[in-house]
């Protein structure tokens, strides 16, 4: 459920139930899973995915673990993950991390964005535009309203909240 929470921190038109990581086959390549295989091997597939991505199965999610997961996505460079960078900054803010840590992370991401091709930066006007767009989002009142509105919009307000443990 942790992906739901993170996607709730900004207004978005849909919630994806897919994972940004794939089950790997014996040779390390992404494993293709047909509907037939899904139906016949589901328990084994879940067991293998749990071995490969144990974070998806934790009972108690800590903000630093979630941060490490998203840092991993950025490090393996699976695309121009501006939304992940935004979500991480908002997660750090939501969990009351020190502003100096948040600013340091913003600067780190700006240096990553700076290396992207111009076409990848068009929709958010480059690293300066991204920073300018994220600063106003760092308001606890605004974040709480956004999360609540998104929960209601997607009818997720009745789902049990397992919580997020703040590692301060």
Written overview of the protein:
Keywords: Membrane, Transmembrane, Transmembrane helix. Helix 5 runs antiparallel to helix 7 (about 125-135). Strands 1-2 form a two-stranded parallel ribbon. The protein has one domain (about 1-165). Helices cover about 55% and strands about 0% of the residues. Residues about 1-5 have low confidence and may be disordered. By secondary structure, the protein is an all-alpha fold.
What is this structure's SSE topology?
Blueprint: H1 2-7, H2 35-52, E1 61-62, H3 63-75, H4 82-94, H5 99-114, H6 118-121, H7 126-134, H8 140-153, E2 164-165
Parallel strand pairs: 1-2
Helix pairs in contact: 3-4, 4-5, 5-7
Number of helices: 8
Mean pLDDT: 82
Largest sheet: 2 strands, parallel
Q: Rg, please?
A: 17 Å
Q: Main sheet: which strands, in order across? A: 1-2
